[in-house]
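KAT2A acetyltransferase: structure tokens wanted.
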Amino acid sequence: QANDACKCNGWKNPNPPTAPRMDLQQPVANLSEPCRSCGHALADHVSHLENVSEEEINRLLGMVVDVENLFMSVHKEEDTDTKQVYFYLFKLLRKCILQMSQPVVEGSLGSPPFEKPNIEQGVLNFVQYKFSHLPPKERQTMYELSKMFLLCLNYWKLETPSQFRQRSQNDDVATYKVNYTRWLCYCHVPQSCDSLPRYETTHVFGRSLLKSIFTVTRRQLLEKFRVEKDKLVPEKRTLILTHFPKFLSMLEEEIYGENSPIWEADFTVPATEGGQLVSRPAAVSTVAVPTTPLFSKKLNNSSSSANMDSSTPEPLPGNAGEKRKLPESLTLEDAKRIRVMGDIPMELVNEVMLTITDPAAMLGPETSLLSANAARDETARLEERRGIIEFHVIGNSLSQKSNKKILMWLVGLQNVFSHQLPRMPKEYITRLVFDPYVAQRGALGAALVWGAPCLTLCVAANRKHKTLALIKDGRVIGGICFRMFPTQGFTEIVFCAVTSNEQVKVKQGERLVGFSKDIKVPKSRYLGYIKDYEGATLMECELNPRIPYTELSHIIKKQKEIIKKLIERKQAQIRKVYPGLTCFKEGVRQIPIESVPGIRESCSLPAQKGKELKDPDQLYNTLKNLLAQIKTHPSAWPFMEPVKKSEAPDYYEIICFPIDLKTMTERLKNRYYVTKKLFIADLQRIITNCREYNPPDSDYCKCANTLEKFFYFKLKEGGLIDK
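Answer:
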């Protein structure tokens, strides 16, 4: 500044002007104009930046955004210790902006790593120490559990020193406060502030911190999995709910045991085949939590894996413009599933597979099955393999030198979104496509993509936007602008558009394939993170990482061919001619249909499905078990208790026959349900009452729809109804 006595805050205006509407064109500021804060010419504020490179200016701008985020965090944080750390980092970054220097945390905290061996190495040593004698499949299961634990630990929010002090009365409080401060400065805050170097918790801390947090973290983890057990896929449910608690119990013994060898610097792998686990890096060093649910799907390997042999951890890098890799083939281990009653023998399936892969013997699917979709994605798949179209995940970066090709693609994306979404302000589209930082917390609440569970909240909700660009012949023909909320477990689609000449004509009334208005993500998880605009419809698409969606039509086609071949073989087996019935000549007027020779062999009639249970005790136990499952369902919370008149004064004027799960429980204890029909009628009455009183798009009706599907599925599963 020309005047050394100027006290202008720069980007912090004590009397900011009224915020202009973002959909209006803003005039470009001139450096000769006066500053709104101090009155000096704007050129005086930037005179010292005349000879600074563009890369350095971008770095400083990134620090400015981080300072804004920390400023907000200081005012929102209630814990005193955490607030002090945020304020220290706020002053540090502000000082570095003025001095144009690199931020370095000073003081007695030291620099990473703080302890050796680190947590990751200790846990991997534990897996090899305890499970190296197991067969490869079981040993790999333990290895997957260790990866899941390490990943959770990297993104888990630690308790504050004041909370730790309440449950611990020993001398470890001071040590924990130091470790907590280190964790904030080097691990937690850098998740949202790119100006600070970031390290993984499991790379820079060791046994000391793990002993302080393990008991609480273990309880919170298991409680989270228990509450959300209904969302677990069947093949992972036993692994998570049964094996993971045992795994943590065994790990606890080694963490608190005085003579545990896994924390020794010279720990050696037992001389067994278990040593092969060392050669596989742990997939825990990701820049963000994967969008795959930790508790329901298999963890994918990250592109930035941990180097277990490195002595000094390096800050985690970012990447942009990386070309999407084609999906790799699933391994034999991935394809294996738990066998259930009624499964077709694998030998028969393999035999049929050999038949249908022969073009001369292939039956071919009916042309009416997914004909339009199959042709569409088959063409796209072939174009990608031939290099005609490409998919790139790109984003604007302030920390790396600008890439001309990526910038051109971003401009192309901005044009596509502006033309195809004319109601969206161009300035708004440009800000989200080009700027990796968002000043506002909201964006278009168009869709949710369900993924990882809530692990911890970042210092600020502002996250980078990235865009999946669809490139054809070197130009942008479409894209999806999205924002990931890894700590909340979903990704928000902000814009999705394709150029007009590349669009497939869609019939009026067709909805987005894969998207549903039935939102499964709890509202508390996304409320405040995205905006739900008036007139917009919030929809959700849940993705399963085990499904290769680009090959979906091909898979369905192959499955249909297998089923047709199996039906053909089954028909060949049942083409047996049985002798005619002679019982009617002997005076018999009626016989059960299942007694007709050949009926059971050809139709597989159910034995006792749908029949009324004669034994009262058996009926009572069956209904009791079913009611218990319904009450623990996540969507059952609105129906647990009778509706209070204070909450809904006119409820009992509209609903003539109120019923709830508590009343049903009392009726069940009093042996009111002497037949299954009475029980089913009360269940259906709960749903009917809800739909009669509440609007169709309310949260209560959404819960009712989900719960209805669940209990009818359970009724069919228990043989209480036929269809």
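The first helix runs from residue 42 to 45. The longest strand covers residues 475-485.

Cheers.
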